[in-house]
Structure formats: structure tokens, C-alpha cells
Amino acid sequence: MQRAMRLLESVAGHESGAPAKQLARETGLALPTAYHLLRTLVHEGYLRRDKGLFFLGDAAERLTSNGAPQKRRSTVVAALARWRDAIGAPVYYAVYREGEIELVCVSDTPGNPAVQEWADFRATGHAHAIGQCLLSQLDEVARRDHLDRYPVQPVTPYTVRDGHSLLRRLERTRRMEPVFARQEYALGTVCAAVPITAGATAATIAVSLPVHQVHRLHPAAQQLQTEVGRLLGPLALSISI
């Protein structure tokens, strides 16, 4: 099995295919052994052979495509846990997908618990930093469409009062700058969200803190932005999980 995996990895490195002799050399296998394993992998559908060259087969590509989302999710989960511990606060990852705010992952601890969803998170995007950060990344048409479906309404005494006020706030939000919300979704909680944009997908990483730690909010957002910047490449590829 281990030798077969080495052959699959070697073939995967050659988009234009590779002959058996080259694959045997790259994997350190004797040529007869390589031939035997390659024939078996072709028979099982993991490889295909064309004009003496070997390519990944349908079975291998299915394994790759099925495993990719899990691998991408693991990348995000590990990053969130690392940032959670470094900042000392719960960390959230959310995207705007098909017209909806989707909270994908949350990383917290018993000592620093995440905010409880007491009002529908998707319908109250106007009231939390995550939603405001995602909406600020949309164009005007998509933004107004969202607010038509989910009108602004009070969630706490600190929530933005109407759609017009929210739109003005979003228009003033500078590109790629953190968004802050103070007790707008949950009393006693402040939060900050850092925008991430990859292609047409809007995403954000956010932190929350108890209101008595509001003095930590801006430094936490700056630290999170720095940490996200270091991992932006792999993270951007993970937005589609």
C-alpha cells in the first residue's frame, strides 16, 4: 500500500503524464515492482495509461475531491484554535454564500465562551460585526437585496436604528479594515471582524470579548488581522468549505 501511494503521489506531480521508468526512478522502486503496481492501479481505476504515460484515474480524482473539503476545513479549524489561544478570546469564521450569512466555524474555550445565538444570526447581520463586515464587502445591489430580505430591526438598545443609517455606516467602512460592534447583538459583548476577500466570496474572521474588556478590542483586532495576513494564502483557498 505504501509503495502504491508513492506511485500515486509521483503521478500526481506530472500533469502531462509520466512513463513507468521515470516513476520507478522517482519512487525508488525496482522497475518490475513499479510495473506490477502500476498495472494494478490502472485496473482499479486509480491510474489510467495513455500512449505509455500514466495519469491519475477517476478513482484517484474522486478521492482527491472528496478529501479536499475536509482538508480545507481542518486548515481553518487549526488556524482558529491557534488565534483563539494567542488572543485569549473566541474566534469566528463566517462567509456570505448564496445571499446568506453563514457562520462556518467557531473556536472557543470554557474560560472564553462564544456568544450564544439568541436571535437568528443570519437575519440579524445588521447587528453584529460579522454581518456588517460581510455586508460591507458586497456591492450596493447585493447589500440592498439582503436588507430587503432581512430588514433592520432593534436587537438591543445599541443596534443601528434603520436601514438608511446602516447603509451609510457600511459606505464609510474602508476596504480591508476591521469592523467593530459594541453590544449591538448581545448586551455585555463587543466584537470585531476582519474582512477577507477571495475572488467573489466575502468572508471574515472575528473575535468577541465581554464589554468590561472593551479596551482589548482594538488590539485584538489588530493582532487578528496580522495573524490572518500570515495565513491568507491557505485561508483564501479554504473559503469554499
UniProtKB/TrEMBL annotation:
Which Pfam families does this entry report, sorted A to Z? HTH_IclR, IclR_C
Q: What is this protein called?
A: IclR family transcriptional regulator C-terminal domain-containing protein
The record's keywords, sorted A to Z, are: DNA-binding, Transcription, Transcription regulation
The cross-references to InterPro entries, in alphabetical order and at most eight, read: GAF-like_dom_sf (IPR029016), HTH_MetabolicPath_Reg (IPR050707), Tscrpt_reg_IclR_C (IPR014757), Tscrpt_reg_IclR_N (IPR005471), WH-like_DNA-bd_sf (IPR036388), WH_DNA-bd_sf (IPR036390)
Do the record's keywords include Repeat? no
Question: Which PANTHER family does the record associate with it?
Answer: HELIX-TURN-HELIX TRANSCRIPTIONAL REGULATOR, ICLR FAMILY, HTH-TYPE TRANSCRIPTIONAL REPRESSOR ALLR
Residue limits of the IclR-ED domain? Answer: 52-241
Supply the Gene3D superfamilies for this chain: 3.30.450.40, Winged helix-like DNA-binding domain superfamily/Winged helix DNA-binding domain
Residue ranges annotated for the HTH iclR-type domain, each copy included: 1-58
